[in-house]
Amino acid sequence: MSISIAIVEDEKNYNNALKKVINYQQDMKVVAQFFDGNDALKNLPDLSPNVVMMDIQLQDMLGIEIIEKLKKEMPETQFIMCTSFEDDEKIFNSLKAGAMGYLVKGESMDKILSSIRDVYNGGAPMSFSIARKVLQHFERKLPEIKGLEELTNREKEILELLSQGLLYKEIADKKCISIDTVKKHVGNMYRKLHVSNKVEAINKFNHFKN
């Protein structure tokens, strides 16, 4: 059975080049080409192709918006971003929206074809430069979460009370300690968690608990 593919790309030459190469393969076929976002948004659900090659920056909307709107309607369809953008925000917004692959347009056609097969078989293909950015992102996040393990039990208790909205004085009364002691614990927590205010500390604490 051949892999059905839709291409959403407003650069006509690139769209047609993709179609030509894909249709030359025995195991895949382009079932639709879209040159703007609204057309894709309207017609993709009826087609439900196995794979959608999605440009990020269409002239009328972002490809990310299309995925966000269609992912629930098309749970079996896999989306691959195929774009010239490599900035972190677009990468992570695409992945959060439900894209399973992210390719840079400079990739060879062989890489694009293997990525289509890969995503169809449950993989998550990415260009090397994108994969490196994703790994670097998580490497930056890990030390931040580790800080929570360094908190003492008393510091965790105070952070829990802060997250419940209690003031320093209320925490001091509840724990039978002075306000200065509470402030000292809070200062230690900020240092260990690499944060500079209460909101950041609470957000990190809630993220860790979840």
TrEMBL record:
Residues 144-209 form the HTH luxR-type domain. The modification 4-aspartylphosphate is found at D55. This is Response regulator protein vraR. Keywords: DNA-binding, Phosphoprotein. The lineage of its organism: Bacteria, Pseudomonadati, Bacteroidota, Flavobacteriia, Flavobacteriales. SUPFAM superfamilies: C-terminal effector domain of the bipartite response regulators (SSF46894), CheY-like (SSF52172). The gene is vraR. InterPro entries: CheY-like_superfamily (IPR011006), NreC/VraR/RcsB-like_REC (IPR058245), Sig_transdc_resp-reg_C-effctor (IPR016032), Sig_transdc_resp-reg_receiver (IPR001789), Tscrpt_reg_LuxR_C (IPR000792), WalR-like (IPR039420). The keyword Transmembrane helix does not apply. One of its GO terms (biological process) is phosphorelay signal transduction system.
